[in-house]
Structure formats: C-alpha cells, structure tokens
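Q: What does the assembled structure look like for these inputs?
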Amino acid sequence: MASIAVPGRQVAEERFRTCPDTGLEVHAKAETLIRVNVLTAVVFLAVGGLFGLLIALTRWQAIHLLPAEWFYLLLTAHGAAVLIFWIMFFEVALFYFTSAVVLNSRLATPMIAWVAYVMMLVGALVATVAVLQGNSSVMFTSYPPLQAAPHFYLGLILFAVGMLLTCFIFLGTLVVAKDEGTYEGSIPLATFGGLTGAIIMIFTLASGAIILIPTYLWSLGIISTIDPLTYKLVWWGLGHSSQQVNVTLQVVVWYTIAALVLGARPLSEKVSRTAFLLYILFLQLASAHHLLVEPGLSSAWKIFNTSYAMYLAVLGSMIHGMSVPGAVEAAQRRLGHTKGIFGWLREAPWGNPAFAGMFLSLVLFGFLGGISGVILGTEQINILMHNTLYVPGHFHATVVCGTTLAFMAMTYLLIPIFFQRDLAFPKMAKWQPYVFGAGAAGISLFMMGAGTLGVARRHWDITFTDALISFDYPATAFFMLGLNGLSALVAAAGGVMYVVVVFGSVFAGKRRTAAEAKSNPIAPGAVALRTYGSEGTLKLPGTIVLVSVFFIAFALYYFINWRFLAGIWTMS
Amino acid sequence: MALLPPKNRLWWNEPLHRMEIVWITIAFLWGIAMFSTMIWWHIYGEQNLSNESYRILPDVYAERVDVMIDAYQVGEDEFGMPIVRPPVGSDIYLQARLWDWSPILELVEGESYRLHLSSIDWQHGFSLQPTNINLQVHPGYEMVVTLTPNAAGEFGIVCNEYCGIGHHLMTGRINVLDREAALAAGMQLAAGE
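A:
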C-alpha cells in the first residue's frame, strides 16, 4: 500500500510512506507531529532533570546547595517540567503512534493537532514562567489556601485543554481508520492500550477542569474560598489518575518494544486486554491514596477507594507483570534461546538500548514502584509514610524508573523509525539505560529509606538550624540523603547521555535509506515476524520464577510494614 | 504481536493458559487478603484513625487551644512557647499555624488523650518523630484521635506539608513523662500498672 486509496473518498492529498523497519504505513502529517512532540518532551526533560539534580544536591545536607526560596521554587518547577510536560508531550506522540501509525491510517484533523500542540506549549511556558517569577512556589499539588499567581493556573488549564484535544484526535483517528478500512478485525493491543490511556486521560482532565477553573477564579479574587479538602479530593482525580495514564502508556511501550525488537506476541490477547480494562474500571479511585490521614472521610470510604475496590487495578498490573516478561521469554525461546530456566534472559539483546531500557523499566517499576505504591496506599500503614520522603521515593520508582526509562527506551526506536536517522553515539546509547536506571533506582530506594525513618518531604533543612524548637533525625537519614544525592548525579549523567544521543541523532545522525533499514533493521522483530496472533504453547519456567520472587518480596515487605506500624503509639 | 490486530477477532473467546489462570488467581486472592487486612486491623489492630472530625472556624479553634493553655500551663520554654500539662484522659488541643505548633504538650507514658488537631491558616502536616505518626492538618477541619504514648521522652513535631517559605522552621514538641516522674509531680494516673 503506497497510499490508502478508498474509492469515493477525498484522501488523495494525504502523503504516506511505508516504513522499511516495521512495514507500517506512516502518514506524513502524523510523523511530523510525533517528531515535534517528542523533541519538545525531551527539552522539558532536560530542564526539569537539571532542577531535580539541584534539589537532590540541596537535600544532601553536606552540600545544601540552594537557598530556601530557590529550593521551593525549583521543586515546584521540577514537578511541572518532568511530571507533567515531559511525560505528557511524549504521550501525545504515543497517542498518534498507537492510533494513526499502528493502524496504517491518516491522523484525524492534523490542524487541530497543531492547535493542541501550540496550546500545550504556550500553557507549559506560561506556567513555568509563573513559577520562575517566584510568586508561585506552591509545589506540584498547589494545595489551597496556598495561592499561586493566576497565570500559573491559567497555563495549566491551557495545557490541559490542549491535551484533551489530542485525546479526541486519538479517538477520531480510530473512527477514521475503521471507516476507511485501514486494518482488519479488532484493533491491535498497542492501540487498545492507547485507547485505555485516552479514556483515563479524559476522566483525568475533566477532574482537572472541575478543580483548576474555580482555583483560577479564586486566584483572581472572583471566588472567595476554596475548601482545602474538596480541592484535594478532586485535584487528585487529576494528579493520581494522570499517573495511571503514565502506567498504561508505559505498559503499551513495553509490549511495543518487545514486539519490535523480538517479535514478541502477547501470551494471550484476552488476558492483556482484560488487564487494561481493569485499569479503566478501577484506577480512578486512586485519589484516596492522598487522603488516608485526612479529617472528614470515613475509613470505609478510604479502604474501598484506596484499594481500587479490592485491588482490582493492582490485579491488572500484576497480570501485565507476568504477561510482558512471559511474552519476552516465549519469543526468545521461539528464537532458539532455550537453555535452562534463564538462558532466554542471559541471551537477550542487552546491548540494544530499547530492549535494555524496557526490561529495566519493567523490573524496577514492579519491584520498587509497584510494591511501594500498594504499601503506601494501605490505609493504616499510610500513617507511617504520609508526606515523608517515602512518597517521592515511591513515585520516582514509578515515574522515573518506570515511565521515564520506558519512554527513553521507546525513543531509541522512534528516532530510526520517524526521524529516519541512525542513533548517534551508539556506545553511549548502549550504556544510557543502565546509567540512568542505576541512578533512578538509587534515588527511589534512598528516598524511601529516609522516608521510612520519618524524614519529611519538600523540606529545605532537616537539621532545623534556624527553628526555635530543634529536633534530630537519626544519622542514618542524613546518610540516605547523601546517597540520594550521589544517585541523582548518576541519574543526571544518564539523562545527559539521553539528551545528547537524541539531539545528536536527530540533527547529525546518519540518514537511513530504505535499503539500509532492510539490511540492518533497528526493529528486527517486526521484520522477522509479520504474522498475526498470540503465542501458542506456553512453557515459561523463567517467568514463573520471576513472578514468584516478585510475589514473595511483595508479601514479605507488606507484612514487615504492619510490624513497623504495630510499634508506634497506639491510636484509635 | 502488539502492533497487529489479534488473529482471533473474537479475542475474548480465547482459552486461558494454565499458568495465566494460576497467576491471576493468586493475584486476585492476594488483593482480597490485603483488602481484608485493613478491615481486620480496624478490629484487632491498635493503630487506627478514629474518623472523628468536625468543621470548625479557625478562630473558634484558636480559642479552645487558649482555654486549655490557660487552664493547664506549667511553664514556658526559652522562646515563650507555653508548656502545658493536661490531665490524663482529657481532650488536648494542638494548633498548627505559620510557622509553629502550639503549645508544648506534656503527656504521661501509657495514658490516653483525645488529641485535637487543626490549623488556623494553611494546610500543615503533623509529623511526630521518632515514633513516626503523620497526619494531615487542614484549616476549617478538626481531627480527633485518641493517642497513647508507649514510651517516655521528647518527641519532635515536624511540619511535613509545605506551607510557605518558613516551612522548615515549623517545629514543635511533645514531652512524654515516665509514670514515676508523673506520680512524683503529683499527677493522677488512670491506667493501671
């Protein structure tokens, strides 16, 4: 198919090319949008990452780099730049990839996609400028009565409306693809995951609108008060649910990389899709995770919501946690790597940064981010951890080790496929996932360690030098924060490597011709395997061992935390 | 593969593999177990929030704190923060504001108190260390929880909800007397030995 020509339709002006790596029909306008959104995302990652390093070096008490005002200011800017702007610009690219590209379709309304891009960019810049001006150091969460400058909220609202448009473009593209018959049967798993993400995103942004618009009016003086508890309840419908979009799209990236690199097929379409469906049905209850030690809410409400109605969304993640390594193992065994229980893992393409990043993301997300998240979200255990450094420790494990590492890995496939360039500095790219993964894992672990010792998050000086009543955290806590600073340096090095590889490749990488792509494919899995379907026979001893180890670690750590809880003052 | 449509259009009719059924069953039962543990702890555990809370105007709350301070103040620290020794078993009030915790409470080991928590300005975080109890404090809401210190000593209160530029200066203290010291000071204790 050189172009999608459906009789009687005016689509002749749409330009397509056949991707030599994947065989997919790539719509030129979608391709340009994907490129621009990815590069914008990487710029925000670079800036936000730098802020993160400065913050970690401040919390390393021996260095204590920034003055207090700058610490709180950059902490706010760090959250916005990486947790919102880097990730969501990248997600726009993933929405267009999993709809238009995967379905061989044209993108619906590319003009509106550009409008959305401009809105998001302007919104992001306005909010960032508001923070850097110094009157909006309200943290990522901006809890009232703490108030930011009006244009801080306005920037976020503008950004969110742009993001909402891209969700509708995603849905519109599904309609176009079905209508124009660009694929047969059901949508592929990657698109199904993208659809899951888009649905959750729409819910998420609706929550954002419900709370941010009144807050904006409040900052202008039009509304007199915002109830702080109501704000938290609704705001976290935005703040936490958007993390569930990240999880969803990161799982899509895992499946996609396994497919492109190894030709991996899902063990079972039914199981993987049901897991996504569980996300749609239950993830939105997670606002409660942030309200477990608040006044005004009953324990019945807290327990039901914090557990996603009996952990049904956790069930979804545990299913993906089996089916993704299972798909990798099945593919490796099919390719002939059958030695012993872990021969498939030893002989995996660890020198391919896309695969290495994807597998590290999977393991670190599961073991560090997933387990800590469930424990943090246990009603009573939250008393030990609420607003301690355990919280950022947990979400750096999910959002940095998980989402960011997965998106970085995906970039190593997007560059050859959509920029048609070879990776510049391939050696650096090869090491990048390991360097960044090690640093990010260190950040997560050491913050969780300090948090377990009670150290407060978002706190400039835990020596309390200038406070009237002093208090000493244990010396181990300071040691943990030192290690956290060192880990941040390692992660920053990995971040610089990523940015250098991306911009080096995009602007100076060798152009790939179709012939070169065929002889040296970046996505061998896609070329090797153009057949449909799930894996058939299942003998996956390696995956069984992996999930067993995971389960034992999960259960042990869960009960250890109940032991910790039993040691504190009794409360009733 | 993940980028191609499923071979079987009716993918929900695919049979499940045994390994998948086993893992899904384990994960589901684990979820039920964790869900039940939270409920079980409400019945048998000794660290639960009471869910008792009220809406209250900040100045009304500040007044209640002052009434308690006036009634039971036993001294003040070097910076003038009142030190209060309320009777065991009584309602005790802690006030969060930019940027201190008022007053310094003196409690007795092994005795229960109904602790009231509220803020008179912004949101704050009550973080009692090193026992490690962390509760959110809202303006306009009063939380009540019955606390029983299980050890004597000085406990620090740190604010762990960002509350502006003086956030890291916001500290407080709870002193827990051991039972003999409390008896020697002439206090009446309720809990038996």
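The first strand of chain B starts at residue 52 and ends at 55.
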